[in-house]
Amino acid sequence: MTTVHDRGREAGGGDGRGHVLIAADKFKGSLTAVQVARRVTAGLRHVVPDLPVRALPVADGGDGTVDAAVAAGFERREVRVTGPLGNEVTAAYALREGTAVVEMAEASGLQRLPDGVFAPLTATTYGTGELIRAALDAGARDIVFGVGGSATTDGGAGMLAALGGRFLDAAGQPVAPGGGPLRDLESADLSGLDPRLKDTGIVLASDVDNPLTGPKGAPAVYGPQKGASPEDVAALDAALAQFARVLARSAGPQAQEYAQAPGAGAAGGIGYGALVGLGASFRPGIEVMLDVLGFAPALAGAQLVITGEGSLDEQTLHGKAPAGVAAAARAAGIEVIAVCGRLALSPTALGTAGIRRAYALTDIEPDVRRCVAEAGPLLERLAEGIARDCLS
């Protein structure tokens, strides 16, 4: 059998071996992207001890984005901000040479809620605005704003309020936090937004291209996973529609148009707030993050790329990290193997995505609960199989 190693040798150069690039996302609930890279490296080297390996943990803008940036050499900065329930939490962003990576889930994500506690109508993104302000205070001139994993559906109103926006009811009082109270919004004033935002390049990095409202909008599609009942979904959809109408009066008709723009519905509509209030531009999260993390230089000279995430399924094909990694590697003519906890894609679908083969934890341990609990050791065993099949 001709292995990847053999093809590298045929290409010439030393012993012909390029490095293996591990560019995988987290296994949610089990392993961080950094831990995935470590376990895969260990498994590969059990079989090929002197194998050159380079780890580049990746993320698509959702939770884990700051960790991926730190692993790539950014400095981790921590700040106390307002959590989604109004309590104070410690959130982190990443900074390097004037570029900040801000992850909304750090301040306003589901991870900030106590187990079993949801607040679909009242959870706020105020802390995300505080996190952005901290990045500006630290000298950020460009911000990669990763959104996903949110506990909120407030259209980014809380974020904009933290940055100087004002949202008032008919009595001239600030509306309460959360998406639900936006039903009472009568006026909005964005003139007090932090002036530094005008001189800051902000990219909205997301794997979600939903609009703000409607059948495919933020409340309908993502509200239930944040604890929203059907009645809550209807209330939030109406409240966000009111938010867009009021912003159209104060910020101009483009605010109404932005409600239907790709990414507006990301992370409970915070994408909409970023587009309208922060002047952000939308790009698929994995594309942005591969640029920021330095994927192209890491790919140069690689003989094989190993990517992956917890579940390889239909969602993977629509802007998730493994699909983005595979597309970039395929464009460079480098083969891609995927690792995952659970595989729900056919070989044909994998091939179309540019993935030669996928290895799942459930291949060696059918009990899903054990896969979650013992993901690290199982992943090492999986990587040993990859080394035997493709590298030895």
UniProtKB/TrEMBL annotation:
<dbReference type="InterPro" id="IPR036129">
    <property type="entry name" value="Glycerate_kinase_sf"/>
</dbReference>
<keyword id="KW-0418">Kinase</keyword>
<dbReference type="InterPro" id="IPR004381">
    <property type="entry name" value="Glycerate_kinase"/>
</dbReference>
<comment type="similarity">
    <text>Belongs to the glycerate kinase type-1 family.</text>
</comment>
<protein>
    <submittedName>
        <fullName>Glycerate kinase</fullName>
        <ecNumber>2.7.1.31</ecNumber>
    </submittedName>
</protein>
<dbReference type="GO" id="GO:0031388">
    <property type="term" value="P:organic acid phosphorylation"/>
</dbReference>
<dbReference type="InterPro" id="IPR018193">
    <property type="entry name" value="Glyc_kinase_flavodox-like_fold"/>
</dbReference>
<dbReference type="GO" id="GO:0008887">
    <property type="term" value="F:glycerate kinase activity"/>
</dbReference>
<keyword id="KW-0808">Transferase</keyword>
<dbReference type="InterPro" id="IPR018197">
    <property type="entry name" value="Glycerate_kinase_RE-like"/>
</dbReference>
<dbReference type="Pfam" id="PF02595">
    <property type="entry name" value="Gly_kinase"/>
</dbReference>
